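Quick log. Single chain, no ligands specified.
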Amino acid sequence: MSKRKHEHYAKGNGKRFKGGAKLLDPNTAGIYATCPRRKEQQCRSELMNVLSEKIHEYFNLHEGISKDKEETGDLSIEEKIQLELSEMEEAKTNPKANYLQPIDIDVECVVFIKTRKPIDPAVLVQKYVEECYESGTKTTRTTQKLTPISDSCSATGDTEEHLKDLSKRVLQKHFHGKDQEPVKFAIQVSRKNFDTLTSEAIIKAVAETVGRDHGHTVDLKNYDKLIIVECYKNNIGMSVVENYLKYSKFNLQQIYDKTSK
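-> predicted structure:
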């Protein structure tokens, strides 16, 4: 996996992975992490330990529970209160299972940690790599590169329409906010056992969603924001990150090597 190619406005290449892979549901958010061969379980365990501590530092979880449950629909006030109390109690007794869930996707050298609101994987990863960069302390042994996925869609059915809807949801606050300033951006596409759409089609759909209304421009070397698109089998995930090159493309080992020197 260390040799897996990433593309910036370039054609992607599919890669074969072992069979029996678990499928990710639409609207799944989380973090892909790479690790050395046969170290998937160690990587999964250490990430769960490290991130379960960091989410309590980076996020106000009790407020997030309340907000999340307000979005559940036509529940009565009593039902919402009971649901919130149950979730808060679960968060106290088992915070790892509540906000972070390892998903065995059976891909060699890759693990996936699913996150639940109010955890934003992009914020979590960026804060964590920044902390590693500033401290110069190595807090993991087997985890290499982290890739956040803020939201995802199905790659079945009308995949292009799903992708456009996903792009609108993820890109809105980064490119179409109130008093929006021009942004230099790039798009990175990565595909794992995925051939539903070409990289060119994905890039075209995402770039059209960004648009030019606010003066946004493509800059492959000096971008302000990078749009990450991770395609895995039946799922397309997306996030927007900053300081990607400064923090060694979110590769923890490279960050440590850089800061230790």
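The beta strands are 7-8, 29-34, 100-107, 110-115, 146-149, 151-154, 184-192, 217-218, 225-232, 235-242.
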